[in-house]
Amino acid sequence: VATVITHALVGVSLATAAPAAARGPRLVLALAALSVLPDADVIGFQLGIPYGHPLGHRGFTHSLLFSLGAGLAVARSGFGGLAPGSRDFRRVAGLLVLATVSHGVLDAFTDAGRGIGFFIPFDNARIFFPWRPLVTSPLEARAFLDGRATSILANEALWVWLPLGVVLLGLRLGRGRRND
Ligand SMILES: [Zn+2]
Question: pTM for the full model?
Answer without folding.
Answer: 0.89
